[in-house]
Amino acid sequence: MAVLCCATSAYPTHTLRVTSAKVSVCSSSRVSVPQLHHSDSPFVPEVNKAVDSLSKEFREVDNLVARNTARVLRAFQRVKVGSHCPTYSEFEILFLSVQWYTISLLNMGNQNGLSYGNDIDKHFGGSTGYGHEEAGGREALDQAFAEIVGAESAIVRSQFFSGTHAITCALFAFLRPGDELLAIAGAPYDTLEEVIGKRDSGGLGSLKDFGVEYREVPLAEDGGLDWDALKTSIRPHTKCALIQRSCGYSWRRSLSVAEIGRAINIIKMQNPGCMVMVDNCYGEFVEDIEPPMVGADLIAGSLIKNPGGTIAPCGGYVAGRKRWVEAAAARLSAPGLGVDCGSTSGDIMRTLFQGLFLSPQMVGEAIKGSFLIAEVMTAKGYKVQPLCRIKRHDTVQAVQLGNRELLLSFCEAVQRSSPVSSFIRPVAGATAGYASEVIFADGTFIDGSTSELSCDGPLREPFSVFCQRDSSSTAQLCRVVFLPFAGHENDIGWSTLYHIQEHKGGEEGCLDMNIRTRNPVVSSKNQANGRLKTDPPLMLSSLVQAS
Ligand SMILES: Cc1ncc(COP(=O)(O)O)c(C=O)c1O
């Protein structure tokens, strides 16, 4: 097995001195850091070459990060994000609140239509129970998010389980019996199949169960939108057009915001009343504009992807037109409860704010990582999507590996190179929401977070791996270098090229596990109705044994 040697600057032109002797981490036979001399580069020549050749692209990414960070910063400043300040007594807080309120009235502080009200120092305080006692954090986060994506309104909540959940709330916000949902970018992401009723949900309440029809406009041959078909695609009862910005598990191009804007114009020309909803997963901050700025009525996504900045522990968002955001909120909670309830602890509130602030930077690192993967894997003869040096529209880099074994080995190698659960060998299995067997590798601090280093892929032709991102392109770089595809080093021909330490046989301390379900034993016996039953006591004991 190969190990990650070290991480250093994203631009590996300097040499590195590591004077310590070989350091064993975790299990001595599995992970160790080799000694590097000052003349050594931590990167092999091909990677050095790739980085050198990407300096223009990296500079553009830096500029993008600067523009997006400035936009986020402006929004945070405008909504006056403030931390909880325990040194104030309640009386002082009351006094300051009154004083601030008076000043803001005099200054017409709410002239932008935003009421910043009693936001004094409590944004990270969170709330309990119904969440009615929330002191402004929830509202500030929603307002900041809405401003950042150019929407009238937003709801950013830890209570969204995932991107699929947020998208589902958004779809159920405006689709009613007799309406039609039209996916205009080909098949939507796998987990939406049961939501739509494209795949049987077992009578659990898909859109189809509620009498909502569904249709798709297949992608054009070049993997982009079929513009000609789109011009005549909207029917009188087409209530919503769904656009998936990122590629999902398809070998297709991700869409630019400009393309989304062009599609929206074509849709609205046919029927101005047709809503446009964008699945924004993996697209946030990859450009300096977002779909609501080009007319999308609603967008939705996950906080354990781009906008959580690697530190939001959970959650999702819906943003867009106020009326529909409220309706989506009513799906999340209940009609009548809307956006003004639901508690979130202070710890989480802070990470949602901080994660959003860090997000442009993390997305920038992910984009650099995707450029590197594309460059190195292309040089190795693999097909990649997007192609090398093509402007990115999401943070996903797909690599066509061509067979099941290579896909499994790739994911295994990524898992082994991860900071968390490196001792686990990911195995493919059934996962809730997915029809195909899927393999996930995410040795991440946040369970399932694809904001950190992760990759996954469905075990189906053409056996592509989808590398979502890494919070550090440097680390990504190292991992690209050190991906040995366990057991396939010779096929790839890398093991002699790179600073790799071979892990000698004996997978002691290694635990096989479906990373997403955390189920260590994946067999047909564990599956019921296509879902895996997990067995926490077994899982725990296996982990204890493994460590
Ligand atoms: C384009 C796209 N949409 C939706 C989803 C579903 O997100 P989640 O896994 O958070 O439910 C994904 C997941 O990877 C995706 O790639």
Automatic annotation (TrEMBL):
Coiled coil: none annotated. Transmembrane segments: none annotated. Pfam families: Met_gamma_lyase. It comes from the Eukaryota. SUPFAM superfamilies: PLP-dependent transferases. InterPro entries: Met_g_lyase_put, PyrdxlP-dep_Trfase, PyrdxlP-dep_Trfase_major. PANTHER family: CYS OR MET METABOLISM PYRIDOXAL-PHOSPHATE-DEPENDENT ENZYME. This is Aluminum resistance protein.
